[in-house]
Structures are given as structure tokens and as C-alpha cells.
Design goal:
Blueprint (H helix, E strand, L loop, with lengths): L2 H10 L2 H19 L4 H37 L1 H12 L15
Helix pairs in contact: 3-4
Length: about 100
Amino acid sequence: MKTSDLRKLIKKIRKKTWLVLLAFALFLVYVLFDQRGLIQRLRLAGEKATIEDKIEKLRTENARMQTEINKLQSSDKEIERIAREKYFMHRNGEKVIKVEPK
């Protein structure tokens, strides 16, 4: 397309139309890329979902630990079981036999 043809085309289009198109383009850029724009909103929504999942997992873990705390506070047998399993403790007079896996 020659420059003279381009000038003729531009003259045909009204100045108001150009202003409207320019305003719309600026508005679209603002809506998409502004700090409160659509792209930022979508990114934050994804982060929110991730954080909510982490919160739910932590609540579940917290409930499990609270149950374990309650068991340990109310039962000496539970304390003994954990001492034997985790810390390899034994009663006086008991013989400890270590079994190695194959």
C-alpha cells in the first residue's frame, strides 16, 4: 500500500472514530494490565486458591496433632508405646532383640 493511498484512507475515517478507537484501546490496556486489572485479578485468585488449600491441610494436620496430644495426656500406655517405638526404650529386666530387615 502506497503512502498516498494510506493518507486517503486516513482522511476518509473521521477524527471522532480515531479518538473512540484510541480511547477504547487505552481503556482495554488499563483493564488488562493495571494493578487492579484482569490479569492481576486472575493471578491473585490462583494464589488465593493455593493458600486456602494450604490452610485446609494445616487445619487437618492441627486436628490430628490435637487428637494425639489428647491421647498422650490421658493415657500412660500411649506414652509408653511412643517411647518404645521412637526412642527404643524398654522396661527393667526386658531383653531387647534387634531384628534387621532382609
